[in-house]
Amino acid sequence: MSGRQTSRFRKEPDPRFWRFNRSIEFDWRLAPYDIDQSQAHARGLRGIGVLSEEELTLIVDGLERVRERLTTPGFQFADGDEDVHMAVERLLGEEIGPLAGKLHTGRSRNDQVATDVAMVVQAHGLRAVELLGAVMGRLLAQAEAHRDWPMPGYTHLQRAQPVYLGHHLLAYFWMLARDVLRFQFALDSASVMPLGSGALAGVNWEIDREAVAAELGFDQVSHNSIDGASNRDFVLDYLNAAAIASMHLSRLGSEIVIWSSTEFGFCRLDESFSSGSSIMPQKMNPDSAELLRAKSPRVAAGYATLIGAMHALPLTYGKDMQEDKEPLFDAIDTIELSLEVTDGMLAGVSFDRERLEAASGDEMLAATEVADLLVRHGVPFREAHGIVGGLVREAVERELSLSDLTPAELKRHSEHLDESFYEVLQRSSWLESKRIAGGTGSVPLAAQLEAARGALGAVEARVREAQA
User: Fold this and answer.
1) Which of the following is catalytic: 156, 223, 278, 311?
2) Residue range 316-369, pLDDT digits in tens
3) Which member of 2, 52, 272, 277 is catalytic?
4) Looking at the structure, do residues 353 and 368 belong to the same domain, yes or no?
5) Where among 64, 83, 105 does a domain terminate?
């Protein structure tokens, strides 16, 4: 075991500290980014004469061979590899000899790792946007197919007002549209290249940072070397976006679990996204939707972990910052798989129109419509609210529906209640009265669907442009 990179130390690290300090078990995932960065850095060194053209070719080709070795099935890191950066340098040395030592000229592991992680956030931020677009497309397709299917809307998980299923599904579309913006912000935040910041003060070599940044896909370079070496805001931005997106998926998953229960019977998941019971052969459990609920706090905990590690951390670098990678990688894996599962789950879900319509036909859902009817007759809304509350109480106590109340009984509650009361109780009026922009009525819903198509098209265009 050798964890010392200089001759400053005479003792080998204690095995317990070595295990505690070593990061190769998780930062190996930085390897492809570290190799790309190292090749670009080598070209920067060639540009200022540190490397000859022949040396540059040897290093670049040697790094390609290192890349092949790292991706060979069964490859194992050496016990002495502290982190991926030192492992790549060691492997390069095995390929090209002492020349590999020149590669670290003009950089520190501080700005090296910050650059690698920024590249990870860029790559997976874009992947998240792509996957979000796919789920948005699936939600839009389901909303269009069920644009005129009435269902009960809920508050406090109690039936509240009827809505169209298409309108309800589009609520999740707009949640994910906001998630796209958050991941895009993380992408923009990670588009500033830290390489060249050195350990904290910059480096003594006037490497063309802009050229290196352009090769690696960064939009600009950091303005301040201290900030460049110590910044992990872009990781926090990604984790924030992932945590909120996962929370949105958990809400969708929770509704699918409830809707697919025998008590509700609003929908049924495809068998390929369901599981059975080990003891009850009749069961088909919505495990995919349940796991969407359970994954959310895990991603949120990753955000809390890193913001806790970074809070009150003096500038510039502390080993605390090594704790950025495990929550990031876990969040990447979790949110990407969750989005893929959501896409497949939504593709195969089927809805039961009769059950939805039966549940949305409860006349109690028209209570607000009756209150608005009274307002149109000049009754202040708060007074109308109380009148309708009295109607509902009487109907419940007598085990009647609202339409069972006679005109004379209505008059006891308010002189403004006339035959129009019974017209309001017609189910179609409950939905189509919501003509305001953003409402559930068919006219604003059509406009909403058109807006959703435009929003989805913009997301897809953004992905195509980034991938070009």
Assistant:
1) 156
2) 999 999 999 999 999 999 999 999 999 999 999 999 999 999 998 777 777 788
3) 277
4) no
5) 105
